[in-house]
Amino acid sequence: MAVRLPRPHHHDVRIAVGGLLGGLFLYAFGLGVRPADEPIVLWPDSRVLLVPLVVMAVCELLRRTMPRAALLIGTAAVTADIFTRGSLATVLMFTDLVYTAVLYGPPATARRVPWITGLMTVAATVVPFAAWRVPEALLVGVGVGLVALAPAATGWIVRNHRDTAAAERLRAEQTALLAEIDRSQAVTAERARMARELHDMVANHLSAIAIHSTAALSLDDPRTSKDALGVIRENSVEGLAEMRRLIGILRDDSGDKEPSAAPTLDGLEALAEGARTNGLDVALDATHENRLPAPVELAAYRIVQESLTNALKHASPGRVAVTLAERDGSLAVRVTSPYGDRDGPRAPGSGAGLVGMRERVALLHGTFEAGPEDCGRGKVWTVRATLPITHGGTE
User: Fold this and answer.
1) Are 335 and 307 in contact (CB under 8 A)?
2) Which end of the chain has the smaller Cβ count within 10 Å, N or C?
3) What is the pLDDT of residues 60-103, one digit of tens each?
4) CA atoms of 71 and 113, how far apart (whole Å)
5) Backbone angles phi, psi at 283, to 5 degrees
6) Domain-terminating residue out of 127, 153, 174
7) What is the value of pTM for the model shown?
């Protein structure tokens, strides 16, 4: 099967054609490097120098696609050119092959060529001087250095700069990608936080409105309907106030994670009283010695609020017990409500409340459990959360 050579780069074609035409121009005017009577010239016929010239021009076609093969063949061509009258174009094209072998060749070739040309330069300087003992012998080493070592060193420098620039571009792209990932994660986290706030702020009031409006529509009792409408109005006003606070959070450009008006544990009694107004039998036992970090207080408040909302929507008649206690460097939150069939109207649930509570606890590196369990007075639904008290933590 025939081996198909890679197509040369269009710049390489121009360089090869330019080198060949330059060599032919020098040949046409009889401008050789060495006179025909020099001892080193084995082939004084001027036409012989055209063979290394043409071979070198062909090698230039491969300078980018096959740099190592081009250098090996070019080295043989320039060696043969030494024993002819010589062509300056052949030598110049060889220096370009040395340069491109280091610049475009494999890493191993790029490392070895400067060392090899350096050793050749040293040898070409020391050996002729030791043999002839005349200062002019040092010019051989200078010539080899200009033809071989200088282009190799130049190619190594350019390659290092090119690799460094590529590495910097890659690092910049990676940094930009990481920044975009961080931005996306920050946006996602902020959207999740606002979703939790929206759910926790409004769900309690809307659930009460739904339950009492259902009761008002299903019971043909004017007094019951009037009481239900009163509860509906109260929850509507409170829900509207919560929505205004949420809008204030969205418009706050101070950069704070939570505004100063965020709920605290001091508001638990009012929260429980509101639940009692909505028809729940709530027993609150909240004890903590010191002021807790704002993220911990907010998470505890929202967990209690969501648990009361769930009890209002799903719990059977009976007492809802809310207990908060600070112990072993953490705040323990426990809410229990009767679990079983419910006779009264029931508000639909989406499951987002449990997800939001679990997310709040996870952000504080705490533990969360929710589910039914048996106790002495029957089956209850229990919500347990343990919130580590880490001052300076953020949600």
Assistant:
1) yes
2) N
3) 999 999 999 999 999 999 999 999 988 999 999 999 999 999 99
4) 10
5) -115, 120
6) 174
7) 0.57
